[in-house]
Write a structure and sequence with these properties.
Helix content: 55-70%
CATH class of the largest domain: Mainly Alpha
Number of strands: 9
CATH superfamily of the largest domain: Cation efflux protein transmembrane domain
Strand content: 15-25%
CATH topology of the largest domain: Alpha-lytic protease prodomain-like
Largest sheet: 3 strands, mixed
Order of helices and strands: HHHHHHHHEEHEHEEHEHEEHE
Shape: elongated
Strand order of the largest sheet: 1-2-3
Distance between the termini: 82 Å
Length: 486
Amino acid sequence: MDIHARAVDEKSRAAMFSLLAALALTSVKLAVGLYTNSLGVLSEALHSGLDLLAAVLTLIAVKISSKPADSRHPYGHGKAENLSALAQTLLLFGTCAWVVYEGVHRLASGGSPVVPSLWGVGVMAFSIAVDINRVRVLRRVAKTFNSQALEADALHFSTDILSSAVVLVGVLAVWLAQALHLPEPLSRVLSQADTVAALLVAAIIFRASMHMASDAVDMLMDTGSSHASESIAASVKGIAGISEVRRVRVRTSGPQNFVDLTVGVAPGLKVSDGHRLAHEAEQAVAAILPGADVTVHVEPRKSCRIDENNPFALVQLVASEHGLAVHDVHVLSADTAYHIELHVELPGQMPFDKAYARVKAFEDRLRESLPGVEIVSHLEPKAPGAALEPGASVSVPFSEMAWREIQAAVENEPLAGKPHKFSTYVLPEQGVCISFHCNVSVGLSVEEAHNVCTRLEKRIRAAVPQLGRLSIHMEPAVVSDSAGQA
């Protein structure tokens, strides 16, 4: 027997067991309630009668929901269980109204005395025992097969246990009051305990009904779980190659979950790769909602529409998609193709074959976007620290000496002036590093400004040979005339 057939069989047997139990309890409670004139027991008999009707609705709903999807019901017939749960709440609201009306009338008039009898005590104890077993069976099957109709039944009969216990106390109080021949004031109070118990039953039923109605309406209105949606979005976004999750919609029809999500991927991705990512997304959803019917829409990431004439941006984008850090990117263009040289940082302890596979995938993706491109990748270990080295500072005498040499170099360069924003720091692999800003004459070309920077760097390195990195930021003089010297 397959899983679907086993689910239908177990759900049907659980619903039938609930129906037979409701039939037995209704008959016994009605007989004892009429004999003892106990409003508590009669209210429980009416409650069990509605339980019987609810059990019939549940059995029918389980049968209908097990039907496969068809042209008129492409999402299946699972909503029948939600309709059944909602119908049960309407029946329970009717029960509450009758019990409250009759209870208030008895308290106001003081009439309809209860006939003291242990039969009332016995039938309520019997009802509690049956309901405990019924709830256990229904909850087990409802949890196993995600059935809201059976879950509603289980919740319904859980309240029966509590309400039966309340009525049991009320009937027992009336019996004790007359069996022990208690004084009139105390006896009169205890004689109304049965009616008060009935009103408490009504309150319990009403509260459970509101909860069941809310759940049923949420299901019928396709109110999805925000927690499930957030978990799905986080899980799918963690898949390599999926850059964003734009929309997640979750709906439930009976025991079946339906998930519809849209994911963003890199433009130009192969159809086969898109299919693979969609399959991985389905598996990620299945880990959160087992058995869910998942539809994945794969779309190009809008924010990734890069101008094909900007290979630098494309290199950085593809590197980001593959989780790689690249630097020293050089692009040489010919009439028909590009030649790209770059450095790729990878963990120093990573096996080289795995590192090579990651970089090759990155290169292949670049070749798809730039047909005919020639790529030379230099693999190097990732620097142990991207920030300044902790505890490493440049001595004050050295900083002062370097700053004097920079001022002297700038003073001897006729096209440069006003050095400012001077800073020194230490990097783990490069040692002492210096950076500063410097003005250059207005009207210079990029090539001429670069030549000025090159001359300055040669003079400074000749004066301070122990330098590691030297960074000079050139600014037009008119922009930074007001800049102060650091």
